[in-house]
Amino acid sequence: MRVHDSLIELMGDTPLVRLHNVAAGVPAQVLAKVEYFNPGGSVKDRIALRMVEAAERSGALRPGGTIVEPTSGNTGVGLAIVAQRKGYRCLFVVPDKVAKDKVAVLRAYGAEVVVCPTAVSPDHPDSYYSASDRLARETPNAWKPDQYSNPENPASHYHSTGPEIWEQTEGRITHFVAGIGTGGTISGAGRYLKDVSGGRVKVIGADPEGSVYSGGSGRPYLVEGVGEDIWPATYDTGVCDEVIAVADRDSFGMTRRLAREEALLVGGSCGMAVVAALRVAAAGGPDDVVVVLLPDGGRGYLSKIFNDDWMADYGFLSTSTDEGAVRDVL
Ligand code: PMP
């Protein structure tokens, strides 16, 4: 019988899909690594599996234990799937800017979720960093994966995402573009692609305007899952050849175009990464192969990015928004 024993076996090995309309007129090929094909719907399944299995081996996570983690949703889903299969409880802490739909998804998988305010500093007792530390201390038999410092986060991308892209492009990739949140994706996959190509592959980070990675001071920006106000240990500061800052307006405009013109219903950090990738591709030549990683699907953002009223409230919806995004990248 053609049967998978569990969803865990289906994590990784995501497809690479060519972008057509949004990349019209740019000389380089632009290929999207579509991570919503993971069973949890995002790139974070990869790190969830590797972090849990490493913790089981080290004894940090014991049978019947509780996984406590601050997560903007996607890591939580990956952890919840792995935890369910392996019999662990999940307790997640999320910032209040995260879409309600995403929190509902975590709860649907059986996880407990604590929502914390975004408008406080990281060392405030109510911040989502502090609250998760406290819950990890107070919960018996708890293990905190800490995706912001766990070396298994970038390692998962060094050992899966990076090699997949290299094989899928038969070594022809010239540029790798990804958003930076914990930095795990770009540090792991980017470092692998540099190592395997002898430094030939250029690695380009995409970052929301205002985030520290592109020289900002922290907040505010609306795109979820990327950008930071701190420098996490999982980000290899030497991996990026360039970091491109993208405005929320352009990220969301491109996210909507990806759904309408490429049938890729993806999240806002995907639109952000594609804007950066198109800037890279526009400056490249016909032999360049630009791979852009799309971290998650768009269903968690229907009430925000794909909602005209929400977009209009922020002034992102004008007749020229989408055209503006194209003009900006070309
Ligand atoms: N996009 C989304 C939607 C995410 O949830 C994340 C993870 N925080 C990222 C991008 C960035 O990935 P990484 O943490 O590996 O830098």
TrEMBL record:
Cofactor needs: pyridoxal 5'-phosphate
Q: Name one GO cellular component term.
A: cytoplasm
- EC number(s) from the headed UniProt entry: 4.2.1.22
On whether Lyase is a keyword of this UniProt record, the answer is: yes
The stretch of residues making up the signal peptide is none
Q: Does the keyword Transcription regulation apply?
A: no
Q: Name one GO biological process term.
A: cysteine biosynthetic process from serine
Sequence similarity: Belongs to the cysteine synthase/cystathionine beta-synthase family.
The name under which this protein is listed is Cystathionine beta-synthase
The upper taxonomy is: Bacteria, Bacillati, Actinomycetota, Actinomycetes, Streptosporangiales
Which part of the full protein is shown? 1 to 330 of 456
